[in-house]
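Forum: Protein Structure Q&A
Topic: Joint prediction for protein chains with partners

I've read a bunch of threads here and the consensus seems to be that you should model interacting components together rather than docking separate models afterwards. I'd like to see that in practice. Below is the full input, 666 residues plus whatever partners are listed. Could one of the regulars post the assembled result?
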Amino acid sequence: MKKLINDPADVVAESLRGFAAAHADLVRVNADPAYVVRADAPVSGKVGILSGGGSGHEPMHGGFVGRGMLDVACPGEVFTSPTPDQMLEATKAVDGGAGVLHIVKNYTGDILNFEMAADLAREEGIEVEAVITNDDVAVQDSLYTAGRRGVGVTVLAEKIVGAAAEEGKDLAAVAELCRRVNAEGRTMGMALTSCTVPAAGKPTFELGESEMEIGIGIHGEPGRERVPLASAKEIVERLAGPVIDDLPFASGDRVLAFVNGMGGTPQIELYLVYNELKQLLDGRGITIERNLVGSYITSLEMAGCSITLLRLDDELIRLWDAPVLTAGLRWGA
Amino acid sequence: MKKLINDPADVVAESLRGFAAAHADLVRVNADPAYVVRADAPVSGKVGILSGGGSGHEPMHGGFVGRGMLDVACPGEVFTSPTPDQMLEATKAVDGGAGVLHIVKNYTGDILNFEMAADLAREEGIEVEAVITNDDVAVQDSLYTAGRRGVGVTVLAEKIVGAAAEEGKDLAAVAELCRRVNAEGRTMGMALTSCTVPAAGKPTFELGESEMEIGIGIHGEPGRERVPLASAKEIVERLAGPVIDDLPFASGDRVLAFVNGMGGTPQIELYLVYNELKQLLDGRGITIERNLVGSYITSLEMAGCSITLLRLDDELIRLWDAPVLTAGLRWGA
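Posted by a regular:
Agreed with the consensus. Here's the joint model:
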């Protein structure tokens, strides 16, 4: 296992210590239970935005904590749900009296733990709403999920919903907006290589030298099909095609196009993929109004990419453009 | 070769088209000769800042073009110097009457071509100064270099010098500042895996399953030694030790600590490395005043990292903190 780590059991805790030291101007990190919280939390009168899930997907979610995005993130162990206790403490840390929104990716462990945490928080008098993201069109059920998996749209939802909360929208409005973003977005991913969970010490799956996996999940869960390597152009068709057909996106739609690296993919390839996606969407009459190209929801060192399309309207564009000041996304502030 | 590409011969051109489409608000991309230039270039009365070199190191340099950093970047083919003609056209594109600074990493091909380009530009009446970065303490000479290689400090110099040019400093002052940043910074890197140049189609070097290369260059050039895999703590000692001893950095120094990923290294590992570096520097009485953690000067999909330390004073801190608006670095704007 070739990784820049010490003891595999300490990877998440040590990485969080580094993150805390690097970004002390933006966040505080609580060690036990682990959460990453805005330095100025709780913000009185503002809806708190919480997300979380297994580690290994950085910068998601800790890298999205800060003004205009998340108030707090709960990192579990690698590819493992955080605990209800952890989510409860994080919820309490960001309750400024206006309630807290939980943004939950659709994985069975996360769903169960977030439900329990929401119940516990409500018992303590905190208003909580939960929205589940499930944008992955690759498979209906998977190794860790009943229904569709929550993937790339989660990043976009966190940005847009964070902006709305910053503007002072109430909990019901913020939750409704989050549901709308999830409903308007679709994603599909692929892998050229596997990843290795530190505690496992060996690759999550095996992929031949001339194979790739289409429809991969962010934990290396099997996708739709294992096929021979193909050109970037063909890969983009295989990802964007099902994404477009599913919503469906149609000629005249305005979209945010998000080309995401899985962790081990260099930028030179991501921009090449974006070039193919742009041509494909141009051909379908779909206009890219905004874009995001980079590694934002990753699977450790997996090589590969995902493509997310989000249908935009003027309000979503305005909220996307609003200032954000986090370690992972930063503009206008 | 597992890459998200089409024809290996088209990788740089296609990736640049994607970059141009994604960041049309910040830059224009000229196709032939290839350069990435600020959307508002030339800025009248401002010193133009130019850098360039082989592709495959993204976001360096094209990702650093924008307000407060570079005015223009010349990308060569992967790991290949741009041509003098390309550098000349780029120089002309950003000459706002106050001259142009060439920031050149110390590789033999780059040096020769930049010298020729500077001569050609001067013949056309453009004032040009060139500053060579050579911060890599790993080896004195290498496969592509006489003297030390230019690596991580180049990124920091581009930011700091870009801020000074934005403030209106003249060419002599900007060049002197660039030399000072280079003189105050040192770097050393390591690799867990090789990279594969698309046109070559096979790994640049072979590294056993339980080996790593200490002192690697950004083109996969051999480093100081090939040794058994070690913990992150030991790796940080092996990189930061020679960096500290070389300048030398001493107790009481204030530094910018830059933990850079080589392209295939996930963030969770980079922050873990930063945590080790912070502890090591604390133990030596060296204070981290600013930090940068991420993949900014890469070697395609190589897994590994480099550590750069830059000794700071109040002026360098102020210029580092100044607003920057590029695809790869963005704050305060």
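Helices of chain B lie at 11-22, 84-94, 108-123, 153-166, 171-184, 232-246, 267-284, 314-321.
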